[in-house]
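Human:
I keep going back and forth on a fold encoding question. Comparing notes only helps if you start from a blank page. Show me how you would write down a chain together with its backbone fold. Write it directly below this note and I will take it from there.

Assistant:
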Amino acid sequence: MADPTAQNDPSEPSDPSEPAGSARSSDVPGQSTRFLTVMTTIDSELKAERLARGAIEGGLAACAQISAPVTSVFRWENAVETTQEWQVLFKTAAPRYEALEAYLLTAHDYDTPEIIATPVTRGSAEYLAWVAKETS
C-alpha cells in the first residue's frame, strides 16, 4: 500500500488527457511549491470569521471559506459529545503550513483543535498562481 502521507513526485509527467488550463500544483510556471487545503472547526461563526480574517491578513492563506454549521459527534474526556461547529477551509502554499498551524493553535480556543491539511493535486493554473502570490 502506498504511503498516504507522501507527496506526489514533482517530476511525475503530466497526463496528456488533463483538460487545458488544469495544472498539478507542481506544474504552475515558476512555482516549485505544493498547495494545501487546511481545515479546522470552531464553535461559533464569529470565531470562524476571526480565524479566517487573521490568516488572510497574516498572509498565511490566500482564501478561507466558512461553511454553515455542521453537527460534530466526537469522544472527548470519556464522553460522547454532539455540538454545532463551523468549518473553516484555508487555501495555502505548503511552505506556509507551519506558520498557519502555529497561528491556529494560538488563536483557537479549543484544547485540541482539529487542524487537517490535504494536498492539492490538481487545480486551475491561474488559481494556484494566485494562491502562491497571496501567500509569498
